[in-house]
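DM from R.C. (forwarded with permission)

"hey, sorry to bug you on a friday — could you get me a structure for this? deadline for the figure draft is monday and I only need the backbone to look sensible"
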Amino acid sequence: MMPVSYGGAAKRSVIVVGAGLAGLACALLLGERGVGVTLIEARRRLGGRATSFVDQQSGEEIDNCQHVAMGCCDAYLALLRELGASESIRWYDRQWWVLADENGGRGRGRGLVCRSVIEPAAYASLVPALFSHASSFVRASFLSVASKLAIAKAAVSISVCERAEHVEQTFGQWLRGQGQPLEAVERFWRPVVVSACNLEVDRVCAATALHVFQDGVFGGARAARIGVPSVALGRLYERAEGLLIARGGRLILGETAEEIGATSVRTRVGNDVREHRADVVVCALPFEKARRVVKADVRDGRFHAINAMGHSPILGVHLRFDRAVMDVPHAVLVERPTQWLFRKDEAGAVVHAVISAADAWMDWSEERIAAQVMEDIGACFPKSVGARLEHVRAVKERFATFAATPAFERSRPGALASDARLGSSVVLAGDYTDTGWPATMEGATLSGRAAARAVIDLLRGR
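My reply, with the result:
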């Protein structure tokens, strides 16, 4: 095993392990600041969990799961601009919420479907951010007047509360403290929180959920808009390698990290073992991998928190029908097992369904998954009943995100230990680090940038 070193007398060197969004953001910022960066990724593609792959059954490139941005995701959107991929995001100011009555899709008739559009008012720029969507919210048919009044009252509380004061409780506890009726929880608060945080309201930390509403949903017309990639996720990163090379860095694909130290990384390619050395190492792997490969002698107090972290799964279901089944770009399915639908072609015959906090679905067969999703589509889009399913591909992400419980939020690790110095500690990057955000593309990007700044501090001797 021959060690490979990078940098030299004139240029400090850094190895970033993991080319997900955190690793990419970190490597690109370091390169911009003149640091010699080597980015190592085990797979042959970039993007980590926010990427795409070729489905062997259909031959199509599909996403691991549908990822969306919001207008408030400033760091992630800046990264897309840096990668020249901004034009690959399609923006929507409208959200479609669909509610089928209890008979819909259950074999006793199609039932009544209520469809509501939540969108900013024409006067949104003239009123406080909290009231930008008020007029469409008042008209929404999936909520009773009592629920709307209760939600409005809680929204005012959210706009003025200090979310850091609610780390010790779940969002469900916070909602009960606000006197929220069950209908309001099930039809409004839960769909938003489960989708954004990938955890049920009675498990997710209240501070994490409050962040979603303060910065996003109630953050004004621009903050609340939804950005959906118009290309397969992997295509967003096509210019990353060229950009990294232009900044003096290099990308290594297909090498799996087996051991990470403060200044070294041991990788494997088949039977070939390699050792890479640099001044600083950034571990931008998911936390379950970080706790397995980071060497014991450079672990510090941050790893006590990492060892206690858990996951929450997501299920993405790709469906292709013989005719159009969906006439809107996306939809929230209210009180249905399937939570979101995204139209993936102009005709509406290709649909991507998303189920977050999908613990109950993980042991289901693909056939059972498809049957449930088709039932939910039929209930909410009655014109789809009778359409023939031509292809289905269920993608189970058992380790999709961290479980953002109160215990997790209390102990999220930083990029560096407080007493770290050059050559003594691994720098951490990943959405699980102390960004304050849920497990999102924005959180991952912010963590990568924070890790890059921590590296620069180390190299400068703080």
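R.C.: lifesaver. The mean pLDDT is 94.
me: no worries. The longest strand covers residues 389-402.
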